[in-house]
Specification:
5-stranded parallel sheet; binds zinc ion; single chain; Urease, subunit C, domain 1; TIM Barrel; alpha/beta; 5-stranded mixed sheet; 16 helices
Length: 456
Protein backbone atom coordinates (compact mmCIF):
# COMPACT_ATOMS: atom_id res chain seq x y z
CA UNK A 1 0.00 0.00 0.00
CA UNK A 2 1.30 3.41 -0.89
CA UNK A 3 1.96 5.81 1.95
CA UNK A 4 -0.64 8.25 0.69
CA UNK A 5 -3.24 5.57 0.48
CA UNK A 6 -2.55 5.09 4.15
CA UNK A 7 -3.14 8.79 4.76
CA UNK A 8 -6.34 8.68 2.75
CA UNK A 9 -7.68 5.80 4.78
CA UNK A 10 -6.62 7.37 8.07
CA UNK A 11 -10.17 8.33 8.93
CA UNK A 12 -11.46 4.85 8.28
CA UNK A 13 -8.73 3.44 10.50
CA UNK A 14 -9.59 5.86 13.27
CA UNK A 15 -13.28 4.98 12.99
CA UNK A 16 -12.43 1.30 13.00
CA UNK A 17 -10.30 1.83 16.08
CA UNK A 18 -13.30 3.43 17.78
CA UNK A 19 -15.35 0.34 17.02
CA UNK A 20 -17.58 2.12 14.53
CA UNK A 21 -17.86 0.16 11.32
CA UNK A 22 -18.56 2.24 8.22
CA UNK A 23 -22.31 2.74 7.88
CA UNK A 24 -24.02 1.07 4.93
CA UNK A 25 -25.00 3.44 2.13
CA UNK A 26 -28.69 3.79 2.99
CA UNK A 27 -27.91 4.65 6.61
CA UNK A 28 -25.17 7.14 5.68
CA UNK A 29 -25.55 10.70 6.90
CA UNK A 30 -27.80 12.75 4.63
CA UNK A 31 -26.75 15.03 1.88
CA UNK A 32 -26.10 18.73 2.31
CA UNK A 33 -26.90 20.98 -0.66
CA UNK A 34 -25.20 24.38 -0.96
CA UNK A 35 -27.49 26.32 -3.24
CA UNK A 36 -27.26 29.58 -5.16
CA UNK A 37 -23.60 30.58 -4.79
CA UNK A 38 -21.19 31.46 -7.56
CA UNK A 39 -19.01 28.35 -7.87
CA UNK A 40 -15.31 28.59 -8.69
CA UNK A 41 -14.33 24.94 -8.98
CA UNK A 42 -10.65 25.66 -9.83
CA UNK A 43 -10.62 23.34 -12.81
CA UNK A 44 -9.79 26.41 -14.90
CA UNK A 45 -13.23 26.80 -16.42
CA UNK A 46 -15.45 29.86 -16.02
CA UNK A 47 -17.33 30.36 -12.75
CA UNK A 48 -20.84 28.96 -12.44
CA UNK A 49 -22.97 31.91 -11.41
CA UNK A 50 -25.90 30.03 -9.83
CA UNK A 51 -24.74 26.66 -8.56
CA UNK A 52 -25.61 23.64 -6.48
CA UNK A 53 -22.93 21.73 -4.60
CA UNK A 54 -24.10 18.50 -2.95
CA UNK A 55 -21.93 17.14 -0.13
CA UNK A 56 -22.32 13.69 1.35
CA UNK A 57 -20.00 11.59 3.50
CA UNK A 58 -17.24 14.18 3.32
CA UNK A 59 -17.18 14.29 -0.45
CA UNK A 60 -18.76 16.26 -3.23
CA UNK A 61 -21.50 14.16 -4.74
CA UNK A 62 -22.30 16.65 -7.49
CA UNK A 63 -21.49 20.25 -8.37
CA UNK A 64 -22.60 22.49 -11.19
CA UNK A 65 -25.23 24.85 -12.52
CA UNK A 66 -28.48 24.81 -10.55
CA UNK A 67 -30.62 23.72 -13.51
CA UNK A 68 -28.33 20.75 -14.19
CA UNK A 69 -27.62 19.68 -10.60
CA UNK A 70 -30.65 18.30 -8.76
CA UNK A 71 -30.87 18.62 -5.01
CA UNK A 72 -31.37 15.07 -3.63
CA UNK A 73 -34.61 14.40 -1.85
CA UNK A 74 -34.33 14.98 1.87
CA UNK A 75 -31.10 16.92 1.60
CA UNK A 76 -30.45 19.68 4.07
CA UNK A 77 -30.30 22.88 2.01
CA UNK A 78 -28.21 25.97 2.70
CA UNK A 79 -29.05 29.10 0.71
CA UNK A 80 -25.78 30.74 -0.33
CA UNK A 81 -27.18 33.31 -2.76
CA UNK A 82 -24.80 36.21 -3.25
CA UNK A 83 -21.84 34.21 -1.99
CA UNK A 84 -18.94 32.47 -3.77
CA UNK A 85 -17.55 28.99 -3.14
CA UNK A 86 -13.87 28.22 -3.79
CA UNK A 87 -11.82 25.12 -2.90
CA UNK A 88 -9.90 25.03 0.36
CA UNK A 89 -6.42 26.51 -0.06
CA UNK A 90 -3.31 24.36 -0.55
CA UNK A 91 -0.18 25.89 1.00
CA UNK A 92 2.94 24.11 -0.28
CA UNK A 93 5.40 25.94 1.92
CA UNK A 94 4.88 26.06 5.67
CA UNK A 95 7.00 25.44 8.73
CA UNK A 96 5.03 24.17 11.71
CA UNK A 97 6.51 25.35 14.97
CA UNK A 98 7.10 23.80 18.36
CA UNK A 99 5.02 21.05 19.99
CA UNK A 100 1.49 19.61 19.82
CA UNK A 101 -0.22 22.47 21.65
CA UNK A 102 1.29 25.06 19.33
CA UNK A 103 0.72 22.92 16.24
CA UNK A 104 -2.96 22.63 17.18
CA UNK A 105 -3.17 26.44 17.28
CA UNK A 106 -1.48 26.58 13.88
CA UNK A 107 -3.97 24.03 12.52
CA UNK A 108 -6.84 26.06 13.91
CA UNK A 109 -5.55 29.26 12.35
CA UNK A 110 -5.14 27.56 8.99
CA UNK A 111 -8.66 26.14 8.98
CA UNK A 112 -10.11 29.44 10.20
CA UNK A 113 -8.73 31.01 7.04
CA UNK A 114 -9.65 28.10 4.77
CA UNK A 115 -6.19 26.57 4.39
CA UNK A 116 -7.21 22.92 4.26
CA UNK A 117 -3.94 21.43 2.99
CA UNK A 118 -0.34 22.25 3.90
CA UNK A 119 3.11 20.94 3.12
CA UNK A 120 5.70 21.37 5.87
CA UNK A 121 9.06 21.85 4.25
CA UNK A 122 12.12 20.82 6.16
CA UNK A 123 11.96 21.75 9.82
CA UNK A 124 10.09 18.83 11.33
CA UNK A 125 11.71 16.72 14.02
CA UNK A 126 10.72 13.04 14.14
CA UNK A 127 8.20 13.90 16.88
CA UNK A 128 6.57 16.53 14.70
CA UNK A 129 6.54 14.22 11.68
CA UNK A 130 4.70 11.65 13.80
CA UNK A 131 2.26 14.27 15.05
CA UNK A 132 1.46 15.49 11.54
CA UNK A 133 1.00 11.96 10.22
CA UNK A 134 -1.23 11.20 13.21
CA UNK A 135 -3.53 14.09 12.31
CA UNK A 136 -4.45 12.52 8.96
CA UNK A 137 -8.17 12.25 8.43
CA UNK A 138 -9.14 14.78 11.08
CA UNK A 139 -11.85 17.26 10.12
CA UNK A 140 -10.45 19.74 12.64
CA UNK A 141 -6.97 19.81 11.09
CA UNK A 142 -5.68 20.49 7.60
CA UNK A 143 -4.41 17.64 5.43
CA UNK A 144 -0.65 17.79 5.94
CA UNK A 145 2.41 16.55 4.12
CA UNK A 146 5.92 16.79 5.51
CA UNK A 147 9.49 16.80 4.31
CA UNK A 148 10.78 15.94 7.78
CA UNK A 149 14.10 17.57 8.48
CA UNK A 150 15.75 19.17 5.47
CA UNK A 151 19.23 18.90 4.01
CA UNK A 152 22.10 21.39 3.89
CA UNK A 153 25.91 21.11 3.96
CA UNK A 154 28.28 21.36 6.94
CA UNK A 155 28.59 25.09 7.69
CA UNK A 156 26.00 25.96 5.02
CA UNK A 157 22.58 27.62 5.13
CA UNK A 158 20.31 26.32 7.90
CA UNK A 159 22.78 23.50 8.60
CA UNK A 160 22.43 23.64 12.36
CA UNK A 161 20.10 20.91 13.57
CA UNK A 162 19.39 19.78 10.00
CA UNK A 163 20.84 16.96 7.94
CA UNK A 164 24.22 18.16 6.73
CA UNK A 165 25.94 15.24 5.00
CA UNK A 166 29.51 15.72 3.78
CA UNK A 167 29.51 12.72 1.43
CA UNK A 168 27.11 11.06 -1.01
CA UNK A 169 26.96 7.90 1.12
CA UNK A 170 26.10 9.88 4.23
CA UNK A 171 23.46 11.77 2.26
CA UNK A 172 21.82 8.56 1.05
CA UNK A 173 21.74 7.10 4.56
CA UNK A 174 20.20 10.27 5.99
CA UNK A 175 17.57 10.35 3.23
CA UNK A 176 16.61 6.78 4.10
CA UNK A 177 16.39 7.75 7.79
CA UNK A 178 13.88 10.49 6.93
CA UNK A 179 11.85 8.24 4.67
CA UNK A 180 11.68 5.61 7.41
CA UNK A 181 9.81 8.20 9.49
CA UNK A 182 7.10 8.32 6.83
CA UNK A 183 7.88 11.69 5.21
CA UNK A 184 6.47 12.44 1.77
CA UNK A 185 9.17 14.82 0.55
CA UNK A 186 12.91 15.38 0.98
CA UNK A 187 13.88 19.06 1.17
CA UNK A 188 17.26 20.61 0.45
CA UNK A 189 18.47 24.17 0.76
CA UNK A 190 20.64 25.11 -2.21
CA UNK A 191 20.99 28.66 -0.94
CA UNK A 192 23.50 31.37 -1.65
CA UNK A 193 25.98 31.57 1.22
CA UNK A 194 28.84 33.94 1.97
CA UNK A 195 31.43 31.28 1.24
CA UNK A 196 30.71 29.62 -2.11
CA UNK A 197 32.06 26.23 -1.00
CA UNK A 198 29.33 25.84 1.60
CA UNK A 199 26.44 25.17 -0.78
CA UNK A 200 25.53 21.49 -1.10
CA UNK A 201 27.88 20.19 -3.84
CA UNK A 202 26.19 18.99 -7.04
CA UNK A 203 27.09 15.32 -6.53
CA UNK A 204 25.51 15.29 -3.06
CA UNK A 205 22.38 17.01 -4.42
CA UNK A 206 22.17 14.30 -7.06
CA UNK A 207 22.57 11.56 -4.44
CA UNK A 208 19.77 13.09 -2.33
CA UNK A 209 17.45 13.25 -5.35
CA UNK A 210 18.27 9.74 -6.48
CA UNK A 211 17.83 8.19 -3.03
CA UNK A 212 14.59 10.08 -2.40
CA UNK A 213 13.00 9.04 -5.69
CA UNK A 214 14.22 5.45 -5.35
CA UNK A 215 12.44 5.24 -1.99
CA UNK A 216 9.19 6.87 -3.05
CA UNK A 217 9.68 10.40 -1.70
CA UNK A 218 9.64 13.57 -3.78
CA UNK A 219 12.78 15.73 -3.67
CA UNK A 220 12.24 19.48 -3.36
CA UNK A 221 14.78 22.30 -3.32
CA UNK A 222 15.03 25.91 -2.26
CA UNK A 223 16.96 27.72 -5.00
CA UNK A 224 17.99 31.32 -5.67
CA UNK A 225 19.90 30.87 -8.88
CA UNK A 226 19.22 29.50 -12.35
CA UNK A 227 22.49 27.55 -12.64
CA UNK A 228 21.50 25.58 -9.55
CA UNK A 229 18.03 25.10 -10.98
CA UNK A 230 19.42 23.62 -14.18
CA UNK A 231 21.73 21.26 -12.37
CA UNK A 232 18.91 20.05 -10.15
CA UNK A 233 16.51 19.47 -13.06
CA UNK A 234 19.25 17.55 -14.88
CA UNK A 235 19.69 15.46 -11.74
CA UNK A 236 15.97 14.61 -11.77
CA UNK A 237 14.30 17.19 -9.49
CA UNK A 238 11.01 18.85 -10.54
CA UNK A 239 9.74 20.63 -7.43
CA UNK A 240 11.21 24.05 -6.54
CA UNK A 241 10.63 26.47 -3.70
CA UNK A 242 11.42 30.15 -4.30
CA UNK A 243 12.78 31.15 -7.72
CA UNK A 244 15.77 31.92 -9.92
CA UNK A 245 15.69 35.54 -8.73
CA UNK A 246 18.27 36.12 -6.01
CA UNK A 247 16.25 36.85 -2.88
CA UNK A 248 18.32 35.28 -0.10
CA UNK A 249 21.88 35.57 1.12
CA UNK A 250 24.77 37.73 -0.07
CA UNK A 251 23.90 40.11 -2.89
CA UNK A 252 20.14 39.84 -2.34
CA UNK A 253 17.94 42.88 -1.85
CA UNK A 254 19.16 44.88 -4.84
CA UNK A 255 17.80 44.51 -8.38
CA UNK A 256 19.61 41.98 -10.57
CA UNK A 257 20.95 43.01 -13.96
CA UNK A 258 19.43 39.99 -15.66
CA UNK A 259 16.56 38.65 -13.52
CA UNK A 260 14.48 36.91 -16.20
CA UNK A 261 14.65 33.11 -16.47
CA UNK A 262 16.31 32.13 -19.74
CA UNK A 263 14.29 30.64 -22.59
CA UNK A 264 16.40 27.51 -22.28
CA UNK A 265 15.59 27.09 -18.58
CA UNK A 266 11.89 27.62 -19.25
CA UNK A 267 12.08 24.93 -21.95
CA UNK A 268 13.77 22.57 -19.45
CA UNK A 269 11.02 23.24 -16.93
CA UNK A 270 8.28 22.52 -19.47
CA UNK A 271 9.98 19.38 -20.77
CA UNK A 272 10.41 17.98 -17.26
CA UNK A 273 7.04 19.00 -15.74
CA UNK A 274 8.87 21.21 -13.28
CA UNK A 275 6.82 23.40 -11.00
CA UNK A 276 7.57 26.33 -8.72
CA UNK A 277 6.26 27.53 -5.39
CA UNK A 278 7.76 31.05 -5.50
CA UNK A 279 7.02 32.05 -1.87
CA UNK A 280 6.68 35.83 -2.13
CA UNK A 281 5.50 36.49 1.42
CA UNK A 282 8.76 35.74 3.14
CA UNK A 283 10.40 38.47 1.09
CA UNK A 284 7.69 41.13 1.07
CA UNK A 285 6.59 40.65 4.67
CA UNK A 286 9.94 42.01 5.82
CA UNK A 287 8.41 45.43 5.15
CA UNK A 288 4.74 44.95 4.33
CA UNK A 289 3.40 45.69 7.83
CA UNK A 290 5.71 48.69 8.11
CA UNK A 291 4.26 50.10 4.90
CA UNK A 292 0.69 49.09 5.77
CA UNK A 293 0.32 49.25 9.56
CA UNK A 294 -3.45 49.65 9.06
CA UNK A 295 -3.56 45.91 8.34
CA UNK A 296 -2.71 45.36 12.00
CA UNK A 297 -6.06 46.91 12.97
CA UNK A 298 -7.70 43.67 11.78
CA UNK A 299 -8.49 41.65 14.94
CA UNK A 300 -8.40 38.36 13.04
CA UNK A 301 -4.91 39.03 11.68
CA UNK A 302 -3.79 40.03 15.16
CA UNK A 303 -5.21 36.78 16.51
CA UNK A 304 -3.44 34.82 13.75
CA UNK A 305 -0.14 36.50 14.67
CA UNK A 306 -0.71 36.02 18.41
CA UNK A 307 -1.26 32.31 17.87
CA UNK A 308 2.20 31.68 16.51
CA UNK A 309 4.45 34.65 17.09
CA UNK A 310 3.34 37.48 19.42
CA UNK A 311 6.88 38.90 19.39
CA UNK A 312 6.71 39.55 15.65
CA UNK A 313 3.38 41.32 16.11
CA UNK A 314 4.80 43.46 18.93
CA UNK A 315 7.65 44.41 16.61
CA UNK A 316 5.27 45.61 13.89
CA UNK A 317 3.17 47.47 16.46
CA UNK A 318 6.25 49.56 17.26
CA UNK A 319 6.07 52.75 15.17
CA UNK A 320 9.77 53.44 15.58
CA UNK A 321 10.67 50.02 14.23
CA UNK A 322 8.31 50.46 11.28
CA UNK A 323 9.85 53.85 10.49
CA UNK A 324 13.29 52.22 10.58
CA UNK A 325 12.20 49.76 7.89
CA UNK A 326 10.65 52.22 5.44
CA UNK A 327 13.31 54.92 6.00
CA UNK A 328 16.18 52.49 5.44
CA UNK A 329 18.34 53.66 2.53
CA UNK A 330 18.08 50.22 0.94
CA UNK A 331 14.27 50.13 1.03
CA UNK A 332 13.58 51.20 -2.56
CA UNK A 333 16.18 48.73 -3.85
CA UNK A 334 14.53 45.94 -1.91
CA UNK A 335 11.18 46.78 -3.42
CA UNK A 336 12.66 46.94 -6.93
CA UNK A 337 14.27 43.54 -6.41
CA UNK A 338 10.93 42.22 -5.21
CA UNK A 339 9.29 43.47 -8.40
CA UNK A 340 11.71 41.18 -10.26
CA UNK A 341 10.38 38.29 -8.20
CA UNK A 342 6.79 39.22 -9.12
CA UNK A 343 7.90 39.32 -12.77
CA UNK A 344 9.35 35.81 -12.40
CA UNK A 345 5.91 34.54 -11.32
CA UNK A 346 4.27 36.20 -14.34
CA UNK A 347 6.92 35.01 -16.80
CA UNK A 348 6.76 31.39 -15.65
CA UNK A 349 2.97 31.39 -15.53
CA UNK A 350 2.67 32.88 -19.02
CA UNK A 351 5.20 30.37 -20.37
CA UNK A 352 2.99 27.53 -19.11
CA UNK A 353 5.22 26.40 -16.25
CA UNK A 354 3.12 25.27 -13.28
CA UNK A 355 3.22 27.86 -10.54
CA UNK A 356 1.67 26.65 -7.29
CA UNK A 357 1.45 28.60 -4.07
CA UNK A 358 3.15 28.57 -0.70
CA UNK A 359 4.32 31.31 1.60
CA UNK A 360 6.72 30.12 4.31
CA UNK A 361 3.98 30.40 6.93
CA UNK A 362 5.52 29.92 10.34
CA UNK A 363 8.53 32.11 9.62
CA UNK A 364 8.37 35.17 11.88
CA UNK A 365 6.50 37.60 9.61
CA UNK A 366 4.23 35.17 7.76
CA UNK A 367 1.12 34.29 9.79
CA UNK A 368 -0.53 30.94 9.19
CA UNK A 369 -3.87 31.25 7.43
CA UNK A 370 -3.96 34.96 6.60
CA UNK A 371 -0.67 34.68 4.74
CA UNK A 372 -2.09 32.55 1.91
CA UNK A 373 -4.66 35.22 1.10
CA UNK A 374 -1.92 37.81 1.02
CA UNK A 375 0.13 35.56 -1.27
CA UNK A 376 -2.84 35.37 -3.67
CA UNK A 377 -3.05 39.16 -3.65
CA UNK A 378 0.61 39.32 -4.68
CA UNK A 379 0.02 36.91 -7.59
CA UNK A 380 -2.56 39.39 -8.88
CA UNK A 381 -0.07 42.20 -8.34
CA UNK A 382 2.34 40.12 -10.44
CA UNK A 383 -0.17 40.22 -13.29
CA UNK A 384 -2.13 36.98 -12.91
CA UNK A 385 -5.91 37.17 -12.93
CA UNK A 386 -7.79 36.49 -9.68
CA UNK A 387 -8.94 33.19 -11.25
CA UNK A 388 -5.30 32.25 -12.00
CA UNK A 389 -4.35 33.06 -8.41
CA UNK A 390 -7.18 30.91 -7.02
CA UNK A 391 -6.22 27.97 -9.27
CA UNK A 392 -2.55 28.32 -8.23
CA UNK A 393 -3.59 28.34 -4.56
CA UNK A 394 -5.70 25.21 -4.91
CA UNK A 395 -5.67 22.83 -7.88
CA UNK A 396 -2.09 23.43 -9.06
CA UNK A 397 -0.53 22.53 -5.75
CA UNK A 398 -2.92 19.65 -5.11
CA UNK A 399 -1.96 18.09 -8.43
CA UNK A 400 1.65 17.88 -7.28
CA UNK A 401 1.07 16.12 -3.98
CA UNK A 402 1.78 12.40 -3.88
CA UNK A 403 0.63 10.30 -5.56
CA UNK A 404 1.25 12.97 -8.19
CA UNK A 405 -1.74 13.63 -10.42
CA UNK A 406 -4.18 11.61 -8.31
CA UNK A 407 -5.28 14.26 -5.82
CA UNK A 408 -8.86 13.91 -4.58
CA UNK A 409 -8.84 17.52 -3.36
CA UNK A 410 -8.01 20.98 -4.71
CA UNK A 411 -10.96 21.24 -7.09
CA UNK A 412 -14.71 21.16 -6.48
CA UNK A 413 -15.99 18.34 -8.66
CA UNK A 414 -18.03 15.21 -8.10
CA UNK A 415 -15.96 12.67 -6.15
CA UNK A 416 -13.52 15.15 -4.62
CA UNK A 417 -13.16 15.77 -0.90
CA UNK A 418 -15.44 18.53 0.35
CA UNK A 419 -12.79 21.04 1.47
CA UNK A 420 -14.13 24.48 0.58
CA UNK A 421 -14.51 28.12 1.53
CA UNK A 422 -17.72 30.16 1.28
CA UNK A 423 -17.00 33.85 0.64
CA UNK A 424 -19.29 36.81 1.25
CA UNK A 425 -17.85 38.78 -1.67
CA UNK A 426 -16.66 38.02 -5.18
CA UNK A 427 -12.91 37.25 -5.38
CA UNK A 428 -12.96 37.63 -9.16
CA UNK A 429 -13.88 41.31 -8.68
CA UNK A 430 -11.14 41.82 -6.07
CA UNK A 431 -8.83 39.03 -4.93
CA UNK A 432 -8.77 40.53 -1.43
CA UNK A 433 -12.35 39.32 -1.12
CA UNK A 434 -10.99 35.84 -0.38
CA UNK A 435 -10.59 37.23 3.15
CA UNK A 436 -14.36 37.86 3.34
CA UNK A 437 -14.96 34.38 4.69
CA UNK A 438 -18.47 33.30 5.59
CA UNK A 439 -17.60 29.73 6.52
CA UNK A 440 -15.12 26.94 5.83
CA UNK A 441 -15.75 23.25 5.23
CA UNK A 442 -13.17 20.53 5.84
CA UNK A 443 -13.97 16.88 4.99
CA UNK A 444 -17.63 17.82 4.59
CA UNK A 445 -17.92 19.37 8.06
CA UNK A 446 -18.24 23.06 8.84
CA UNK A 447 -15.18 24.36 10.66
CA UNK A 448 -15.85 25.94 14.05
CA UNK A 449 -14.64 29.51 13.48
CA UNK A 450 -16.16 30.90 16.67
CA UNK A 451 -14.04 32.51 19.34
CA UNK A 452 -11.01 32.89 17.10
CA UNK A 453 -10.61 36.50 18.14
CA UNK A 454 -10.25 36.44 21.93
CA UNK A 455 -12.75 38.57 23.85
CA UNK A 456 -11.24 41.74 25.34
ZN1 LIG B 1 10.65 27.60 3.97
Amino acid sequence: MKRLDLLATGLALILAACGQPAAPEDEAPGALALVGAQLIDATGGPPVTDSVVVVRNGRIESAGARDATPVPEGAETVDLSGKTIIPGLVNLHVHYREGPEEIERQFRTQLHYGVTTARSTGSDTPDRVAYLLGAAGRADAPRTYTAGMGFSYPGGFNAAGRNAPATEEEARALVRDQIALGVHFIKMWVNEVAEPGLKIPPEIRAAIIDEAVANGAIPIAHIDDEADGRQLVEAGLWDFLHSTVLTFGPGAGVPMDDPEPSAEFIRMCLDNDVYFTPTLSIVQNRWHFAEHPELLDDPELRAAFEMFNPDALAGWDDAERRAGVVDDPGFEDRKAAFRQLLDFVKTMHDAGVAVAMGNDAGTPNVPFGWGMHHEMEMYVEAGLTPMDAIVAATATGAAQMPPVGEADFGTLEAGKVADLIVLNADPLADIRNTLEIDRVMRLGEWVDRSGFVPAE
